[in-house]
């Protein structure tokens, strides 16, 4: 294989859930396409990635100061769903199971990956709780020791805030970038069956 093509395949294969076989198919399809898809993709990717950044309020990706979720006055204040990844928000939105606000923390506490509280997007949570009249925080974090530790840590940092309920989605739901495998029914059950912490 030409080393340049091989390099490209390796880059694609590192993307989430794209193995070597799919990466090879994608790259060969792009390189043999006569309609300019490869350069259109490269240009658009460069353009979009240069202007997209996390929303300063919630961490969802946006090209403005605030994302469309934070700007949307029709979304319910009162409940805030804490997720690890932006991809979890997309999954919830596809199923229309939740109409409140989101907060993407960007990771979970872990000795293995060296993720500490400083790495998490949680500093403005007290401010959000006040500004958006949050009365329920729903943890939709990975169902792992790290996910639980992270939820416990966040609860402890918000300990002095009154009139707030902490809940978690019904167990058995794989979270943290894995949600897109779930069907709407499972997600509805997970939200409906959420437990108080
Ligand atoms: Zn936002």
Structure overview:
- About 40% of the residues lie in helices and about 10% in strands.
- The N and C termini lie far apart (about 55 Å).
- The chain is built from 8 helices and 7 strands; from the N terminus they run H-H-H-E-E-H-E-H-E-H-E-H-E-H-E.
- The protein has 2 domains: about 5-50, Orthogonal Bundle (Helicase, Ruva Protein, domain 3); about 70-195, Dna Topoisomerase Vi A Subunit, Chain: A, domain 2, CATH 3.40.1360.
- Helix 1 (about 5-15) packs across helix 2 (about 20-30).
- The chain is α/β, with parallel strands linked by helices.
- The strands form 2 sheets. The chain has a 5-stranded mixed beta sheet.
- The structure holds zinc ion.
How would you describe the shape?
Answer: elongated
Helical content stands at 40-55%
Q: Strands of the largest sheet, in order across it?
A: 4-3-5-6-7
Radius of gyration: 19 Å
The fraction of residues assigned to DSSP E strands is: 5-15%
Largest beta-sheet details: 5 strands, mixed
Report the count of strand segments: 7
Low-confidence blocks of residues: none
Order of helices and strands: HHHEEHEHEHEHEHE
CATH architecture title of the largest domain: 3-Layer(aba) Sandwich
| Bound ions, cofactors and other small molecules, one mention each | zinc ion
Number of domains: 2
Average per-residue pLDDT, rounded, comes to: 91
CATH topology of the largest domain: Dna Topoisomerase Vi A Subunit, Chain: A, domain 2
Structural class designation: alpha/beta
Q: Helix segment count?
A: 8
- Oligomerization state of this entry? single chain
Distance linking N and C termini? 55 Å
């Amino acid at each position: 294989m030409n080393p340049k093509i091989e390099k490209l395949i390796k880059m694609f294969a590192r993307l989430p859930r794209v193995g070597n076989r799919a990466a090879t198919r994608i790259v060969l399809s792009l390189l043999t396409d006569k309609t300019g898809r490869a350069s259109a993709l490269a240009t658009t990717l460069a353009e979009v990635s240069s202007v997209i950044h996390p929303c300063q309020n919630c961490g969802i990706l946006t090209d403005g100061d605030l994302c469309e979720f934070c700007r949307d006055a029709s979304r319910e204040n009162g409940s805030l769903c804490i997720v690890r990844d932006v991809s979890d928000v997309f999954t919830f939105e596809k199923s229309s199971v939740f109409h409140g606000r989101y907060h993407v923390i960007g990771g979970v506490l872990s000795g293995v990956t060296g993720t500490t509280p400083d790495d998490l997007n949680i500093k403005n949570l007290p401010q959000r709780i006040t500004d958006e009249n949050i009365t329920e925080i729903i943890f939709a974090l990975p169902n792992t020791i790290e996910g639980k530790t992270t939820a416990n840590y966040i609860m402890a940092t918000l300990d002095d805030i009154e009139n707030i309920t902490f809940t978690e989605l019904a167990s058995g739901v794989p979270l943290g970038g894995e949600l897109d495998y779930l069907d709407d029914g499972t997600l509805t059950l997970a939200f409906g069956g959420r437990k108080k912490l």
